[in-house]
Specification:
single chain; 376 residues; alpha+beta; 7-stranded antiparallel sheet; two-stranded antiparallel sheet; 15 helices; 13 strands; 45% helix; globular
Length: 376
């Protein structure tokens, strides 16, 4: 099977996918209710897309394609409201967060879809351990080569998105000391990590992908669990490192940040990516996962170390004219508040654990925060 043809899309359009937790109102453990919720939604007007994920205790929602932050945020809020109404009818709560803080992977049930059953057969217990929750952001690209350029130009900024979205400090009932423990589950898969440094789509398709396909290891781009990957059927670049935030407002802000960043990178004012940039890639990635905004980033060009928090603030300042052009000033202002005063959602969850004195209380707070701002 050849690689799907690249369907060029309008540059800098954006869309979001969120993997959400389904939890019981009684004990706040995960609830295997995804099929029941989707059945309830059948035949009803829903403001986006909702579908099964790998286990029954998670549900994935997706937006349409948007040009502007306010439109994206409006749809995410409508999806949230509709999903909460449906789940309430089943006495199930919905929330964000990159991991559920105390669920046991062995209790999870694989969703009844051929691909998920096939993945379970291939990866064994790792499939159930993949009950973690991420945000995927798609940015439209006018050409296939542009997609590959952005994929590698973004590598230097990847820790920003890990730290800003981090919302998975607890796992299996304990504080992992990571702001994003979720990504440790992704590391276990053999086709995770980074894409090869290729800038020409013809070379990527007919050399790299064709060789990988010939080995029998991959059949489509979905088989790659890379941090960033091209999605030729949509004509997008897809960022996959974000934990699912606790609010749709934070999810929309992260998408707008990526949109503004891509606009800046496409001006090609920065030095072109080279293989040596990846010498510090895994280190920077670890720092963002482990310490969040307090991590240290090594610049791949200068080799100078800088606090991740400071690098994000500096980047937000550089992106100001791009945010103005895109109409996303409010989104970047929210992220600036996160970095300089509020902290990320991992910090919020730790505070809730201290105040509530239990992991159940922490989930209750996450559910409440997700529902905040509902209009119906």
């Amino acid at each position: 099977m050849a690689l799907t043809a690249f369907n060029a899309s309008e540059a800098l359009t954006m869309g979001v996918e969120l993997e959400l937790q389904l939890v019981n109102w009684t004990d706040f453990d995960l609830s295997g209710s995804a099929s029941d919720i989707l059945h309830l939604l059948e035949g009803k007007k829903f403001p986006g897309e909702a579908k099964l994920e790998i286990t029954e205790s998670m549900i994935e929602i997706a937006t349409n394609v948007h040009r502007h932050h306010d439109e994206l945020l409006g749809q995410l809020r409508s999806i949230r409201d509709a999903l909460v109404i449906a789940s309430d009818r089943l006495n199930v709560a919905v929330c964000g967060g990159g991991t559920h803080p105390f669920q046991r992977w062995s209790d999870q049930r694989i969703s009844d879809k051929p691909r998920f059953i096939q993945l379970s057969g291939l990866y064994g217990y790792l499939a159930k351990q993949f009950t973690v929750f991420g945000q995927h952001i798609h940015i439209g690209c006018a050409s296939a080569d542009e997609t590959l350029y952005l994929l590698h130009a973004m590598n230097r900024y990847l820790p920003h998105f890990i730290a800003l979205s981090a919302s998975s400090p607890f796992f299996q009932g304990v504080d992992t000391r990571f702001d994003s423990a979720r990504l440790n589950s992704v590391f276990a898969f053999p086709l995770s990590g980074r894409a090869p440094l290729i800038f020409d789509w013809h070379e990527f398709e007919h050399d790299y992908f064709a060789k990988m396909e010939k080995t029998g290891v991959v059949k489509s781009m979905k088989d790659f669990y890379w941090d960033i990957r091209p999605q030729p059927e949509y004509g997008t670049i897809e960022l996959r490192v974000c934990d699912t935030p606790l609010t749709v407002e934070r999810a929309a802000a992260l998408a707008a940040y990526l949109q503004a960043l891509c606009r800046m990178l496409l001006q090609r004012a920065e030095a072109a990516p080279v293989e040596d940039d990846y010498l510090v890639y895994n280190y920077n990635r670890f720092q963002a996962c482990r310490f969040g905004l307090e991590g240290v980033l090594v610049h791949p060009k200068s080799n100078q170390s800088v606090l991740l928090r400071d690098d994000i603030v500096a980047t937000l300042e550089r992106l100001a004219p791009h945010a103005t052009a895109l109409g996303s000033e409010a989104a970047l202002a929210e992220l600036h508040r996160e970095v300089t005063s509020e902290g990320n959602h991992a910090s919020f969850l730790r505070r809730q654990f201290t105040e509530a004195g239990s992991v159940q209380g922490m989930v209750d707070a996450a559910v409440t925060l997700f529902r905040k701002g509902r209009t119906k």
